[in-house]
């Protein structure tokens, strides 16, 4: 009998409503693959793939010019602490549909979200060791759980030109109030505040998700100050904060250690900037059946539907504004970290997984090279 619960429940396309699903193709990168990126249609059929030279670190997107923006794991990055091997990146590549490299930028300390802008610029998260006297100001976390070298690594955000010139640089330790942004008590002190997404807003400021402090913030590009803060009374270990056309913020709210609730479940929330009220949300009618403790994605589509990535379980699904599921797909590929130069986490994640960091969907007209005729 099949021993993998996920495989036993069924993989691949699980269902589609052809009348309500958004037309298009879904792109995803299997995290424990050597570097496989797939593009599938609404029937779950692979229509294109890229086999990249580095394992995903952590996801891929299509740019407006049709090329693939891919973030791979840097082959020579320092091994800061064990879990760093899971979420680091560092090789930011733009490749054409045939896999030819158009441009590449490397930063061995980059991690999580490396956001490729359509003009060739990059906005991404990175880390640097915090000076010992400043590191003591970082509050919370598990006592004595600094990195093996004794350091607390603090997040930075970099904005890079197409030629690699540094355009803007922000450091958490210089701009976050440690009292307002304390690590939650179950987190190691090796990494603070663990920024898992960065997003350029239409007004020029920067939207960021801080997982280990359960916060979503807006950073003034001009001053570096935090000018908007959604705190842990609303979000819990959240990911993938993005701006919608009307200025609202869409967030994948994971739900681990949510205030005043013991049963964990994930949800997607649309938050109004002006008063932080929730304008729309999706959670499963049986809430605990939709949950990923880490990672996760939410993308608002052109027809008003939302594409959701239940990341740890390789599940991608699409919901309407009325919370009706109209498409569901489970990544059928499973692998562990053996052979991927990640020995520090081979035992911690010692099972074959189909996990994805984040998936994206594109309308047919956004991929003209796929069907040139």
UniProtKB/TrEMBL annotation:
Protein's name in the database: PQQ enzyme repeat protein
Pfam families with a match to the protein in the record: Arylsulfotran_2
Record-linked InterPro entries: Arylsulfate_ST, ASST-like, Quinoprotein_ADH-like_sf
PANTHER family xrefs: ASST-DOMAIN-CONTAINING PROTEIN (PTHR35340:SF5), PQQ ENZYME REPEAT PROTEIN-RELATED (PTHR35340)
